[in-house]
Amino acid sequence: MVGLVIVTHSAALAHGAAETCRMMAKDVRLAIAGGMEDGGFGTSYARIVAAIDAVYTDDGVVILMDAGSSILTVETILEEMEGRRLRMADCPVVEGSVVAAIAAVCGGSLDEVVQRAEETRSAVKIAD
After folding, report:
1. pTM for the predicted model, two decimal places
2. Mean pLDDT in the chain?
3. CA 108, CA 124: separation in Å to the nearest integer?
């Protein structure tokens, strides 16, 4: 099963997104890297690497990020882990994570899980 990593600047946001994913897809392979080691706001390189390692399988890992330094840090990690099957998903972190979790537990491939997550970029929540 494809694993998921949620990377946010806030531990509370990461935990909340993960909780929502697990309500929709309880068996998802999911780890989070939210905030800094001291509990502060920010992005931790070490936490992201540990989260990837926690859920990595030969099926790969999809990484979903909030913004700014989380994206830059994940890009650096992907360059350094070039031999591993890792993909970033360009999507809203909460909506994309939930859809990715469902796709992963349904047996989606790495590419399929990324595609499903990225489809949430155009989701309309309130129609006119």
Report:
1. 0.95
2. 96
3. 24
